[in-house]
């Protein structure tokens, strides 16, 4: 069972990305398996992990759009946390989700297949209180997860 820690705040520039990235690296150094989830359309965590979102064929947006399974999007690494990358397209996904029933569960559905594969899932939320950010609060729906919310 993986622990899920979400870093959320409606304000930008409060170290959400830095905290998620640094904590992920520290957990890996301690021997844990970690998945970093970039839930921010600005893709700062994706960039921080050394990945240019413009070069990716698949991102979290494709998962939310139902085009691919989450496992197909994860960028694995031997020496650092795995990454579920973002791109600017994620902003469009939020607009698309506004009209969908059950939109608040989109993140829970996306992460469900990965919860048992990692010791920690660290979610870097964008600086807003939109659908994507609020969706992390519905992760408790899966009995196999423990959720820690951390507002920075």
Largest sheet: 5 strands, parallel
Q: What is the beta-strand fraction?
A: 15-25%
Q: Into which percent range does the helicity of residues fall?
A: 25-40%
Given as residue ranges, the uncertain stretches (5+ residues, pLDDT < 50) are 141-147
Strand order of the largest sheet: 3-2-4-1-5
Q: What secondary-structure arrangement, pairings included, does this model have?
A:
Elements: E1 3-8, H1 16-29, E2 34-39, H2 44-48, H3 60-64, E3 82-84, H4 89-97, H5 106-111, E4 120-125, H6 131-135, E5 146-151
Parallel strand pairs: 1-4, 1-5, 2-3, 2-4
Short description:
With 152 residues, the protein is an alpha/beta fold. The protein has six helices and five strands.
Written description of the protein model:
This protein is α/β, with parallel strands linked by helices and 152 residues long. Helices cover 29% and strands 18% of the residues. The protein has six helices and five strands. The protein has a five-stranded parallel sheet. Mean pLDDT is 83; it is low at 141-147.
What features would you highlight for this structure?
alpha/beta; 5-stranded parallel sheet; 5 strands; globular; 18% strand; 6 helices; 29% helix; 152 residues
């Amino acid at each position: 069972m993986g622990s899920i820690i979400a870093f959320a705040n409606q304000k930008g520039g409060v170290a959400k990305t830095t905290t998620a990235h640094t904590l992920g690296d520290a957990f890996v150094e301690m021997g844990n398996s970690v998945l970093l989830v970039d839930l921010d359309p600005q893709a700062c965590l994706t960039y921080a992990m050394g990945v240019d979102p413009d070069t990716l064929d698949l991102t979290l947006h494709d998962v939310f759009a139902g085009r691919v399974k989450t496992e197909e999007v994860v960028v694995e690494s031997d020496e650092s946390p795995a990454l579920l990358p973002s791109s600017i397209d994620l902003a469009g996904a939020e607009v698309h989700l506004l009209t969908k029933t059950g939109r608040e569960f989109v993140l829970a559905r996306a992460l469900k297949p990965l919860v048992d594969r990692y010791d920690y899932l660290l979610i870097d939320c964008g600086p807003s209180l939109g659908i994507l950010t609020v969706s992390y609060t519905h992760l408790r729906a899966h009995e196999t997860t423990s959720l820690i919310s951390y507002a920075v």
